[in-house]
Design goal:
This protein is of the alpha/beta class. The protein has 16 helices and 29 strands. Residues 454-529 form the AMP-binding enzyme C-terminal domain.
Length: 543
């Protein structure tokens, strides 16, 4: 099999191979990701720092906490295959919960703390968790679930505030102080068992549970090792419920001995203060934060000392050449490493490693270690070669097991293990991946995925809306916002503000409609599918 060393392309199989050094994966099939992470050698001392309270967790305290919490979960009846949900802002305790659950062979599912009670209820209805971890402030979102709840706040259960109607069974702090039981029987966990269930809109429609196995997450750790190395310092501001943050801050970087300074949520001043105080060399950001740093560069550089910063890793949405160039110009000591990934690939597909690679503007980098790619013509199914645009298909040890209880798996992963990304891409003559457009209809707002079909279903439930279509509208800070085209029922005078308010009451802030245009009819093809590209052209012609 002859592989072109310059771009990784094999002519006989029409497959692109990673140019990176292959990563080694443990041959022992009976291994959980928590044990794998705990076994990795490093000389790091402090694992986590709470940027608000200053509380620190050393690695020894972290692993003692994981063992004790796992023992308490076992005592509560959590067993292999059970699902446990965590609904929490970023916290130095979030990884303890996740690692404890996965060490039992149970499955951790993460919910966004800004989700509405209805959205959380849908996720609970789909994933069927046996236990929930959440905070006093968020427990009211679980009052109709009848789930037993463990509170994650530092204070004890006695002062649980708004949780009287919830079925509170303990506190995480008490679990971390409870001696581990020696009577616990460790169940056999295989690398192919599901470790995490992270919800994504996938390539189409409604949010689906992405089943990531212990093997997927172990491969993710090894990919981080290849890219970053040991014992650095960083700040976590991206929500840990998101694969970009869960895969890095709650799992992989722990194995590498990194010190992670945790912010509960993104606030620019808090982020910049944390950089000045804690002196990280590395930040992981989504494009809207990078854009804000570009726009406010003069004030930021005069007010904060960011001289420790060497690397910014950007993911979650495409980043334009213009923004990248402006950032490097205004923060001259920092290199911007772009990457591209999906929840379905544990956030790993392509990435940049070196300063030289950052100069390939518009690219997402080279295929990650052990990743194979194909470029497939979406109309004919023909496999294409170098510098040809088509749908990117992927095969790698980080590709998900499938969607949880969802027939969309068969449409997304073929019989040979190729994942159809739904993204139009090309790979150039030197093996760099370029994301051109989306075949799938997702809108990326502030790094979050918004499914047009979900918002359209909501809009069509309004008695004065006869038809609706939702498309992305470009926005400098957020990347994209949802916009709605509406056909009103006969005689209706429904206004733009009434429609936006109707949606806003039922969805998370990033899903809110930001603009409404009224039409006589929604353009559709003969089978009734919305012709979104026509609407996008109509919108961009008016901007």
């Amino acid at each position: 099999m002859a592989i072109d060393r310059k771009n990784g392309f094999c002519d006989s199989t029409s497959t692109f191979h990673s140019k990176r050094e292959p990563m080694s994966l443990p041959p022992n099939q009976q291994l959980d990701v928590t044990s794998f992470i705990a076994s990795q050698p490093h000389r790091g001392k402090t694992a986590f720092v709470d940027a608000v309270t200053g509380r620190r967790l050393g690695f020894s305290e972290l692993w003692l906490g994981v063992e004790r919490v796992a023992s308490c979960l076992y005592a509560l009846g959590v067993r292999k295959g059970n699902v446990v949900i965590i609904i929490s802002p970023n916290s130095i305790l979030f990884p303890i919960v996740s690692l404890s659950v996965m060490s039992l062979g149970a499955v951790i599912t993460t919910a966004n703390p800004i989700s509405t009670p209805g959205e959380i209820s849908n996720q609970i209805g789909d994933s069927r968790p046996v236990l929930a971890f959440t905070t006093r402030q968020l427990v009211s979102k679980l009052t109709n679930s009848n789930l037993p709840v463990v509170l994650m706040d530092e204070n004890r259960v006695a002062s649980s505030g708004g949780g009287e109607r919830a079925k509170i069974v303990g506190s995480l702090e008490e679990m971390m102080e409870t001696e581990a039981s020696e009577s616990r029987v460790k169940q056999r966990v295989n690398q192919d068992d599901v470790a995490a269930l992270l919800y994504s809109s996938g390539t189409t429609g409604k949010s689906k549970g992405v089943m990531l196995t212990h093997r997927n997450l172990i491969a993710l750790v090894q990919a981080y090792r290849a890219r970053f190395g040991l014992e650095q310092r960083t700040v976590c501001t991206i929500p840990m419920c998101h694969i970009f943050s869960f895969g890095g801050f709650a799992t992989s970087l722990i194995a590498l001995g990194w010190t992670i300074v945790v912010l509960p949520k993104f606030e620019m001043d808090q982020l910049l203060s944390a950089v000045e105080i804690h002196r990280p060399s590395h930040l992981s950001l989504v494009p809207p934060i990078l854009v804000a740093m570009v726009n406010g560069a003069e004030e930021i550089n005069s007010k904060y000392d960011l001289s420790s910063l060497q690397t910014v890793v950007v993911g979650g949405a495409p980043l334009s050449r213009e923004v990248t160039e402006k950032f490097v110009e205004r923060y001259s000591n920092v290199r911007v490493l772009q990457g591209y990934g999906l929840t379905e690939t544990a956030a790993i597909v392509a990435s940049m490693f070196t300063k030289e690679e950052t100069e390939r503007y518009g690219s997402s980098g080279l295929l990650a270690p052990n990743v194979e790619g194909k470029i497939v013509d979406p109309d004919t199914g023909r496999v294409l070669g170098v510098d040809r645009t088509g749908e990117l298909w992927l095969r790698s040890p980080t590709v998900m097991k499938g969607y949880f209880k969802n027939e969309a798996t068969a449409e997304t992963i073929d019989s040979e293990g190729w994942l159809k990304t739904g993204d139009l891409c090309y790979i150039d003559c030197e093996g760099f991946v370029f994301v051109v457009d989306r075949l799938k209809e997702l809108i990326k707002c502030n790094g979050y995925q918004v499914a047009p079909a979900e918002l359209e279903a909501l809009l069509l439930a309004h008695p004065e809306i006869a038809d609706a279509a939702v498309i992305p509208i470009p926005e400098m800070k957020a990347g994209q916002y949802p916009m709605a085209y509406i056909v009103r029922t006969a005689g209706s005078n429904l206004s733009e503000s009434e429609i936006m308010s109707f949606v806003a009451k039922q969805v998370s802030p990033y899903k809110r409609i930001r603009k409404v245009t009224f039409l006589a009819s929604i353009p559709k093809n003969p089978s009734g599918k919305i012709l979104r590209r026509e609407l996008i052209k109509l919108t961009t012609s008016k901007l």
